[in-house]
Structures are given as structure tokens and as C-alpha cells.
């Protein structure tokens, strides 16, 4: 009897599943996966060039979500994994929503009549494209590079934004919309000062040749100062609007918080990239502190090219600024005072409110009330005047307003609006007096070197006051935030979506890890 021979039928290898490799590699063999993934993908896809692309630099799925490419998830040939969570509503009356961050996915990606295979593994994207012509299998792929270039150009193509720095750069559509509504006609300010501000800004950006002929740097600085609530911010917005109306619109960079030298470097680096531009430093005394002063001056006056920088600083406390800012013309050539409004300007502001309320039949607001309201609000800033009107209208809305018959009686007390306005003005005047006294006390404490040190901004001994009504601390500057790559645009507003779900906030995402088993294997 002949012995039996067992013959096993050989089966063709099935499709490669990168998910299996991810699962195996994260179980112990390695602490850094990128090289492993690239090697495995090359082995499984001969003839394909594998390109690793950071998702926070070139967001391919966001590009597709904008309708500029197609990105279809492949659930047939590989696996899928994600983290899902919940985003609380931005307003209490709204509902929250489910959110997601992709841990692993495979996509069929199409752009410009070119097809790609896209793997997303955490924050890294792996793009596979067949090699062409003389392209080496290790790359680069010209088609993939063209895709990267296009996505990068797309990220910076939206000019209808304001760049905002608050520990890192981001785009603000909302601020841009506010700027479009900021007209000089709505700014109650000395007409000569308004005209001068507009002239200085527009002339600067049209005078590059003049500066070059004179052999002086093409840069200029303005400093807005005065008590809080008197038009500095709205004037800056109106100036931004003016510059956007030029044939070649001038962008604005708005700096809210830059407490460290790294932040100041990021601010000026971005300003130089986007020049000619206007650089706004709000509450400049919180940016140029004793710790950052020398570095700031080096960035402003140093060897690097600052051509095209139009710097506008604002402060509520001119006397607290370093003399190098407030008294050196080459840094801030012109200073503009925004004082408390005169009675005439307060009358104009009351007239502004009267016109706003003309279509409110339940509010009787005759013209003769405006000068009377202005007269009893001596010493009020525009901010306090606004609060007086808002509080008055809210009080009237909550109560029952009795409207008097119209006649020639000059007695203003017959108008409910006037009586309520007087009450609110009296209450606000007491608040102004209390805050003035408190501000004087704090100023004496800051100014007296013999007094106890007042620490209001982290570990700094420099107090930070952003307005007469509040004293705020600089937010903590974490090492994570301070090391963000500010050369890259902020992508959070792009709403990278998969199946219509928003991105899960970073705070809830899984952190990177190092596999302890992999380290142990490499110990001597």
C-alpha cells in the first residue's frame, strides 16, 4: 500500500489590510510608527509612491469637504476606527452635537481627474499614487506634490478674514464681518482727527516709492490712547474698513495676547510675510512688558526688513508705557488722544440713538431730549453712554410705559424715556465715581515703589489693567500652546467633517503614546 501524501491547496493571498499592521505595531513592536507604516504600504503596493502628509498642515479631507475633491471611505478592503464624543453647545439655548475624530480610515480620493489612495492614521495622512516616468518608487510624486501645493494655496486663498493672534494665529470671519459694518460716519469723533487718521493710513500705503527715494524704512506707527470706552477700538475697525476698500486691499493682523518673546517673534514673522499690512497691538502695555520689552524693540527696529508694516498700538494708560514706546518717534510717530466726549459729541451720540429708535412707536424720543441727555452725562465715556441707553430701554421694556399726549409743554419729565434715563444716569455716575476712586488707589499702589508689590499677571510683578472696570490676568501660557507652529494657518474653523460630523475637540482626543514594550526590547 502506497503511503498517502497530504497535499494542501495553496490559496492566493487576500487583500492587504493596513489596519492589521496598525493593530500589531501598536501592540508592542515599535514606538514610532511612521516608518513602519510607509515600509508596509510600499511592500503591499509595489509601483506606488507613498507620501506621508501631516493632517494639520495639509487637510485633505477638509479640501474635499469644501467641494474641491472627492473623498469616499473604503469600508470593503480595510478597517475603520474613530473616537466619538459630544460637543457642548456654544449657547445654552442650543443643542450640543455628536463629534468624531478619525483614528484609522482608508479613502478613495479624487482630484483634478487623478485618483489616489488615502490612509488616515491619527494626525498623519498617507497618500498612495502610482509612479510615472522616471519617478523613483521612493518618490516624490509630482502629482501628489501638486495636490499638496493646491491645498496649501487654498488654505490661504480666503482674503475675507482678519488674522488674530491669541497665543497662536487664527482666521476670524466674524471680526471681518464686524469690520465691514464699521464706517467712519458711525464713529463720533473730532472730524479733523477722523480725516487725519484716514489720510495718514492711505498715504502710507501709497508712498512706498517716496520712502525708498528718501532712503528710510517704509514703516510707520500710530499710538491711540485715552480713557477706556471712548472710541479707540471702533476707530481701529473703521480704519481697517478703509484699508479694505482700496484697489489692493490691505490685510490687518490683530494681536490680542502675546505675553512671551516667542509670541512676539511669531507676530512679527507673520506680519512680514503678509506685508504690506496693518498690525494692531491692542492694550500694548500687556504685550510690551519688562520681560519682553528689549525683544519687542529689536523686532520693531532690528536688522530684519519691516517694510510695509503700519503698526497701530492702543492703550488706556499712556503714563504706564515704557518711554521707548511713548516718547520715541521712530517707533510710534503719531499719538492720538481719545478723550472723554464733549457735550456736543454726547449730543451727537444721543442723536444716533434717537435715529435708531425712530421705528419704535412705543418709545417717544423727541429731538429736544438729546441735548438734555448730553448735559446730565458730563464725564461719561461713550461706553457708559451706551450702557445708560441699554439699561433705560430694558427698564422700559420690562415695565408699562405710559405715553403722554404730544403738546408744546417743555417739561421733559412728562417723557417716560427721559425720567428713566435720568435714573440710570444717576446710578451709573455713582459707579463711575467709585471706580475712579478705586483706580486712583491702584495707580498710587503701582506708582509707589515703597508699597507692597501687586501681582496681577501670573508671576509677573507688572500689573495688567485692560480697562477701568476690570483687571484681568494674562491667561496661562502653556508649553504646548507656546510651541504651536504659527507659520501654519489655524484649521479649526475649516470644520473637517466625515459623514457630517464635526471634529471632536483636541482636549478629548487620544494623546500620542510610547510603547513601553518597544523600549524594553531595545535596552542593552
TrEMBL record:
GO biological process per UniProt: ribosome biogenesis
Domain ATPase AAA-type core: residue ranges: 222-340
Ranges for region Disordered: 452-489
An annotated Gene Ontology molecular function: RNA binding
Biased composition regions of type Polar residues, renumbered to the chain: 457-481
InterPro entries for this protein: AAA_ATPase_domain, ATPase_AAA_core, P-loop_NTPase
GO cellular component: nucleus
Name of the protein described by the UniProt record: ATPase AAA-type core domain-containing protein
